[in-house]
Amino acid sequence: MAQPSVVFQLARFGDILQTGRLMASLPPGAVLVVDRGVAELARLAYPGVHVLELPVHGKSPGAWSLVRRAVATLQALDPAEVYLLNYSGLSAALAAAFPAERLRAYGGVGGSLRVPPWFSLLIRWAQERRNGGLNLVDAWGLLAREPAAPAAVHPPAQPRGRTLGVVLAGQNPRRSLPTPVLAAWIGAALSRFGGTDVVLLGASGQERLAAELMAALPAALGRSTRNLVGRTGWRQLWEIVAGCGLVLSPDTGVAHMAARLGVPVLGAYLASAWVHETGPYGEGHVVVQSVLPCSPCLETAVCPTPGACLAPLAQRETIRWIARGEGALPSGVVALHSGMDALGVYYHPVAGEDPTEAGRQAFRSQVAALWGLGAPGRGGCTWMTEKDWVLPGGVGGQYA
Fold this sequence. Notes:
Rossmann fold; 4-stranded parallel β-sheet; 36% helix; 17% strand
């Protein structure tokens, strides 16, 4: 029996789906270890993969006993390689259960986690996010020994029906559109692709927000809108999204689900959400991104100018562009389309001014050269240091 690859992805909804390129890169027989709360989702997303569930989030009687039993099962498989994708105390304990030379992401040293060179670079880039341009799907996917071709990860986005799926909000209200703005975006989005009806999607606890939105919609549109907020399990949500012609969403797990299914996404990205890091993966998606000088901000930081990055997304010119796909956009916002290159997904501006586009192109060129996917472009590389290349185990050569 061949030794399988094992991937520990112990985060939640969106992260499960953003592991797609890594999973597509692994030989048959791979094992994906997830929290039991998203196990059904993982099986829907990766039908050819064995999914093993652990009680990671929330309280569960006998959790450590279940974890030890699962680890023993994995050890018996004698995996050829183990990908620990999450920085946590549990990951440190899991690292000690496998030979160090088989750990491809986080590793273990003396009971603590070792940050690999590739992740060290990702952390370094996060200090200057505006000029960065590497999607999280590619950041994880490039860990594989032979990364899958980017275009093979998700199908190109094509409308699957006449229904507009609307995700009410993400976990952080600052990253979401308030009710009056979202209502205007819904009308414009229906015009954009000729939709006939709307379905509202969201988590349990967002019922009041759904009721506010229903009250804000024009009467005729309200009659053609189904409110399924807090009422769908993973399979029903998967089937609903699969039948949509367009999904309107902030940076959420449902947006990544739509991308996984090849359903077009119209994204609203503001505050700490940055399309070049976590935009929907694949060809055919559109994101309207706030690009104020403070964008993207730190999610945990207090905003000194509340509402500033929302304002341009609420203006008439932006709503008009969403409906028609043409015309000028106000200052502080840019519309971008997704495409694919040798490195992965990228978002290029189609309306508005993107002040960081040139720096991002240079960045992607340098990263592609690092991985042997092209020659370095113009512009000096400011984020590599000599030790990355000279010392044993540096990024230059460890994974490429």
